[in-house]
């Protein structure tokens, strides 16, 4: 079968579209014929050796796939051949056929497109875990979402509204702010003079929950805009800069800085992860959340698509198709 292969930890240009061994249906493995493959920021970091974990070389990147089950291992009980499913893994999904462990395989509603199923996994899964378990976002609180037009940011806006929050979306251009507003943000702001703008729109109270997948200087601005008893969620560092936090600020302003590592959460708390996904699918079916799919691209173009994601040039979810 064809797949995207990383032969070494190297720049994205060195990814190879070539032949790769077929996955085998052993143990609790479910083999899926891919219809859609999600592209995520961590995929690009993994390829370059910049992520928190490093798989053995060579490897196939990709953590999301949706499609039809074509084989199951002898230990699989919850799905069968022919079922439509979405699946999550640390890597291996940039391929025509993908093997995934049964606990991370989710049956799909009949009318859910494979593209939107992929978007619900890492992007919405991260935002849901961040806001529900880590930020404990409550009805009536103010949520500020940085990177609000990205796939994870759009998810955070929609989930924040589903939880009853007032949502401020922050994005770098007028077009991206329009996307954030269409996703449900009550207020859409730019990064210029952000501290003053947040002070004004919160009436000087500050932000109850900050959602930051960007890092860099904007993290510092958000940290200085937190309300008493606020929760500042560290999602990632799309700016390329990991900020240094002055811990005295948390003491003086009385807020918490909370790390969000969704990949570790899915491995350490699989039952909670499964419950979260059930809730997200329910919200999807009721119309509370709706992924924004910016575009679909051939699997062979994975390197170029990853460059767009790492360069923060996309709005919404990008999908690969074999």
UniProtKB/TrEMBL annotation:
InterPro entries: ADH-like_C, ADH-like_N, ER, GroES-like_sf, NAD(P)-bd_dom_sf, Zn-ADH-like_protein
All residue ranges annotated as the Enoyl reductase (ER) domain in the record: 10-320
CDD domains: QOR1
One Pfam match: ADH_N
Highest taxon in the source lineage: Bacteria
One example GO MF annotation: oxidoreductase activity
Entries under PANTHER family matching the protein: QUINONE OXIDOREDUCTASE-LIKE PROTEIN 2, SHORT-CHAIN DEHYDROGENASE/REDUCTASE
UniProt protein name: NADPH:quinone oxidoreductase family protein
Species this protein is from: Mesorhizobium neociceri
Source lineage: Bacteria, Pseudomonadati, Pseudomonadota, Alphaproteobacteria, Hyphomicrobiales
